[in-house]
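pasting for the record
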Amino acid sequence: MKIWFISEVYFPDEAGTAYYMTGLAEHFAKTQRVSVLTGMPKYNARGKAVSRIEHLNGVHIIRCLDSTLDKNIILFRLANVFISSISIFINAIGNIKRNDIVIAVTSPPLLPFVIGLVCKIRRAIFLLRIDDVYPEVFVATGFLKKGSFLELLLAAANRILYKKADLIFVLGRDMARLVRTKAGSHAQRIKIVSNWSDSDRILPTSKKSSPLLNELGLADKFIVLCAGNMGRAQAIETLFSAAERLLCKANIHFMFIGSGQKTSWMKKKKEDGKLTNITLLGQRSRAEQQIFLNACDISVASLLPGMTGAGVPSRIYNVMASGKPIISVASADSEMSLVVAEENIGWVVSPSDPEQLASTILGASSDPATLKKMGKRARQLSETKYSAQTIFGKYDHIIDSII
């Protein structure tokens, strides 16, 4: 028996799915035979020369024929998805054997369907890890219209997919609720296992000693940090509206670190609105998280209202590791907001209410004692409930029950 991880992205890419699938594969490789079917680097490591077949940290990696066209252009992105999925299918049908355990992710959306078909043909055990729920992600981000033919078709296809999977991993309680409505009588196969924090690599440090803030001349400001993907699913517009309302507060400054579909809009909005209280920085590597996650007083993560249950931002777990409070700009019943509220490590703000966000930030800036207590609790959570050891233990327990 072998464990297969099937993902469009893998190391050396560092995007969320690539990072977590790499971590899981390397963890299981310590005790099991593990292979990976993936594509070529296409995000932060795009263009990097890699071997088509290699053995890395105990994992046998097969990189399939792929295209790395610009993912921000819709037609190119669709071409990437189709070429990658078909290539992985061909390699999977030739390599996966009967009773192998196959763990596939839901991104891109075509991939789990072709892997589910391979598992049926090869009589392998099909485990589905849901990073994004479709078509909800497409509807929330404006790719599909609710009630359209394509939306209804994709919804029906995913209901079938969930019922065919032998086990389904979801990242949070909101995602579990949504997937249960689709899985029907197969809902008992759903297992909630969150992503983990890198608490062994990211440690809290004083903002005053931040080399990044000292370089930017912002060490004396109250820094509100938004780090990660600046894409269609994030409520970036609400954050900018809050910044506009706080422009008169010279001590409060917003810092955005990352890239995505909304990057061009952000640059134009900052320039047109003369938002001098905003600093836009590009994408930074995971190796720099220790520096930039500590370069703030409070961190903000956001999701559009329609994204509740459709995705769970993994960035919050490393924010916890840095010992910083979190403002969850998302629906109150989202996993991110539930964690922030239940653990008392920050505040929850509606993604449609920039006035409330501005007021929350203003209040937090005048209460350093509360910020310190929240940050301390966040760090403790990263070392316990959301540590890599804890999350890997949950996966081990589930996989052991199958083996």
